[in-house]
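A student in our group prepared the protein record below, which I am reviewing. What it holds is a sequence and that sequence's fold in C-alpha cell form. My question to you is simply how this chain folds and whether the C-alpha cells agree. Do not assume that whoever made the record got everything right. I have pasted the whole thing underneath without changing anything:
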Amino acid sequence: MSTESLLEFWCQQLAGAGKDWAERFRHWQCAPGDQAWESVERATAQARAWASDTGFAARPAPQQASIIVCLSQSEQLTDQELAVGLSFSLEDSELTRHLQERHEVIRQYRRFPARNRSLGRGSTPAEAYFLTTTGQRYR
C-alpha cells in the first residue's frame, strides 16, 4: 500500500465517522499481523514524516486530522505529544481532549494497556486496575 493510499485510508475512516469520530476510534481495534495493524504501523511512520514537513499546515483539515489520528495510534510518547500539539491547529476541542487522554495513558503506562491481551503482553497490577476501573478501551 502506498503512503498516499494510507493517508486516503485514514481520511476515509474519519469521513465515515462524521461527528461520532471519537466514539468510532475509541472502539476501533486491530491486532499484530492483520492488515489493519500493518497499515497503522506504516501510516504512523509516514505520519511522523508528514507532521514534521513544512507542508503540514497547507494540507486540508481532513488530511491533517488523518495524520494526527495516525500518530495517536502509536505507543511512543513523542508521537502522542506530536499528535496533541498538532491537534490545536484544527481548533477541535473534542479531538484535542481525546488525544490528551490517550497521551496521558501513554505517559503513565508507556503503552495502551487495553492492547496487552491482543499483543500477548501481561498487564502490570496498575494496568489491570486501570482497565477494570476505567473501562479504558484505547487500542
Summary: The chain is about 70% helix and 0% strand. Helices lie at 3-17, 21-27, 35-52, 61-72, 77-87, 93-109, 116-119, 125-134. The chain has one domain: 3-134. The CA atoms of residues 34 and 40 lie 10 Å apart.
